[in-house]
Design goal:
196 residues, 6-stranded antiparallel sheet, mainly beta, globular, 4-stranded antiparallel sheet
Length: 196
Amino acid sequence: MLLALGLPAVVLAGREPVARDALLPELAPFVPGGQIVIAQARADLDADGRDDVLLVLEADREATKGNEPDELPRRLLILRRDASGALQLVKQSEQAVLCRQCGGVMGDPFESVEAKKGSFTITHYGGSAWRWASRYQFNYSRRDQTWQLVYAEETSFHAGDPEKTQKKSVARPPKQFGKIAIDEFDPYDYRGKGAR
């Protein structure tokens, strides 16, 4: 319904993984054994008039009885629909979505992925006494045939006095960074990076 109205598809992640038998048949080939989908979103990510798919995968802790390390990377997959209607894996990142333990005392920092026409945003939240949040937006570049970082917002505050301690930083190209494709993006090291 959201897509029919042209509204963004928002999926909160890390709460309820998608069971393998609940996956649409066209998505199952992109989820290897031992992995589960923790977020998915559909939108026309490359603005060609066809719905594409974003998937976020992590190790299936149930299958491994919880023995998988929490700091294992998660994978963001971009599946683009071709002219025949089939999905193709065109980009992936093992850095864009933070690991289960990367949120500090707050635990899993991955909040959501939001997809809309020609764009998607990844949101995180974590910390302990000092809390932090981040939003990274990637837009599709027809010229470069990839999704590039176009907006980065990072906030922090002390839980004991959020009003007085809140800090917000916004970064945009080309001043704070150059062209950074999703498969090159590192949320810990993107400022000053990328071709200008």
